[in-house]
Specification:
Strand content: 35-45%
Structural class: mainly beta
Helix content: 10-25%
Low-confidence stretches: 1-32, 480-485
Distance between the termini: 96 Å
Radius of gyration: 41 Å
Mean pLDDT: 87
Number of strands: 29
Length: 485
């Protein structure tokens, strides 16, 4: 019968299936709604249970559930009552098992598992719920089924695993860890969703959905798409592809079986209730900043550059498989260079910039080289401060020899600059003066009397941004020569 059912029509009306969901195969009372057995395994009567029984999942009023009252007849009821935490005979572990059991049956049936496979899973959860009632007769009956070989050692291990998992009921915690981040559009990274019970133990077998912004989820646990289930470690490993620069964010939402929320039917006439579990959501997220690796700036500043540097900027190499990028270099706020970089390449661009200019590099993804930005524009690397101070103008004069000495006077004209300039003058290795010069002023140096033919050195140093530049002027009284370093 099951083989002719449509796979997506799991919950059927009462007239479709004529099996019963009961611990004892007895006639159902004449009520408006009686549960119909969906998937189960049959067992003979034995110690603890005088009649034959089916153990599995049933449908009632469009809901899938399990029998929580062994020894009573087929579940019935016209409505479902929400559990309030104190419903007699319903323990938290049983609610969890009912939720997980229904989920597993639906998952298997819609994935084209065989009827026998689904029957076994339904019976596994049905046994777990019966055993967790603490009913001594059911415990005896279960032991009898094991002795008769109706419950194998391997099947018993599966049932006990369900029960052990359900013992860790309580609040769940979830986290998302990005184990490999990428900063280029088109490349793939990895991450892990970890789900834990309140006591720190792994929560396995729970459905996870992974989404995000600026990313596309490629697979979860090796399967294409963005859904999967937590493994024995409580983890779901995913692969994502970066679709845009900026701040990619990955969100994980896991449906976990509630240990306190569910429903039971309002059974009457000595029938069992039908226990229906429910799922609730827990979530977590992780984010990072994605921008291309910064490139390198190299400046050239000659003596005659008059404070205007030649700047070469080389981008980082764009990895293979990456989407093309559009680069923009701004000098303060003005755009001074625009260019494109494709996968597997890097580019070098040349531009001019005045001393103390701040160069900032930006990048965005494009569909084609030469195209406009199709995504977020991000800053690349750190701003670069151009250091290329203009040379000062030095004037030195010598007076006529008097009493064997020559009087030397000097004057320095500094360029308009934000840089700090300092001066130091020495004559034949003996320092004559040292002073901080005023920017953009005529600065009179200290006069000195020197011996004719003495060597005079004047050093002027510009400083800024952790950089220095020194000009050295060398004289032999009365002759004057100028060199620059």
């Amino acid at each position: 019968m099951f083989g002719t059912m449509r796979r997506h029509a799991l919950v059927m009306g009462a007239t479709t299936v004529t099996a019963v969901c009961a611990s004892m195969l007895t006639a159902s009372p004449a009520l408006a709604e009686t549960a119909q057995y969906m998937f189960s395994l049959s067992y003979p009567g034995a110690t603890g249970h005088i009649g034959p029984a089916r153990v599995g999942i049933a449908a009632l009023n469009g809901k899938l559930g399990f029998c929580p009252d062994p020894g009573k007849t087929t579940p019935n009821g016209t409505i479902f009552v929400a559990l309030d935490g104190s419903t007699p005979g319903i323990k938290p572990a049983m609610i969890v098992e009912a939720a997980r059991g229904a989920y597993e049956v639906k998952r298997l049936w819609t994935s084209n598992a065989t009827t026998s496979e689904v029957n076994k899973v339904a019976a596994k959860y049905g046994w777990a719920i019966w055993l967790d009632t603490g009913n001594s007769k059911i415990a005896a009956y279960y032991n009898a089924m094991k002795k008769l070989g109706k419950v194998s050692a391997s099947f018993d291990a599966q049932i006990q695993a369900v029960r052990n998992e359900a013992k860790h009921v309580g609040t769940y915690t979830e986290k998302v860890q990005l184990t490999k981040t990428v900063n280029t559009v088109g490349l793939t990274g990895t991450g892990t969703v970890t789900l834990l019970h309140h006591d720190g133990t792994a929560a396995s077998g729970d459905p996870v959905t992974v989404n995000g912004s600026r990313v596309k989820i490629v697979s979860v646990n090796g399967h294409s798409g963005n859904t999967g289930t937590t493994n024995a470690k409580g983890q779901a490993n995913f692969v994502y592809k970066l679709t845009d620069l900026g701040t990619p964010k990955v969100n994980a939402t896991t449906q976990v079986p509630s240990w306190r929320k569910g429903f039971v039917s309002n059974a009457s006439g000595g029938a069992q209730r039908l226990l229906v579990g429910s799922y609730e959501s827990v979530g977590a997220w992780a984010a990072y900043t994605a921008a291309p690796n910064g490139g390198t700036f190299v400046t050239s500043c000659s003596t005659s550059c008059n404070g205007i540097a030649t700047v070469m900027y080389t981008t980082a190499k764009l990895p293979s498989g990456a989407a093309p990028l559009r680069y923009t270099i701004k000098n303060n706020t003005a755009v001074v260079k625009t260019g494109y970089v494709t996968a597997g390449t890097q580019k070098t661009w040349k531009l001019k910039a005045a001393d103390s200019s701040t160069l900032v590099v930006y990048a965005c993804k494009v569909a084609v080289v030469g195209g406009k930005c199709t995504g977020t524009t991000v800053k690349v690397g750190t701003p670069f401060l151009v250091f290329c101070p203009a040379a000062p103008v030095l004037t030195v004069s010598f007076g006529c020899p008097c009493n064997g000495k020559v009087t030397m006077t000097g004057n320095v004209k500094l360029p308009a600059s934000v840089r700090a300039y300092n001066e130091a003058t020495s004559v034949s290795n003996n320092q004559v003066s040292s002073m901080v010069l005023k920017t953009n002023f005529d600065n009179a140096l200290k006069s000195a009397s020197v011996d004719p033919g003495a060597t005079v050195s004047i050093n002027i140093v510009a400083q800024g941004g952790g950089h220095t530049r020194t000009w050295t002027y060398t004289f032999t009284a009365p002759a004057v020569t100028v060199t620059t370093t």
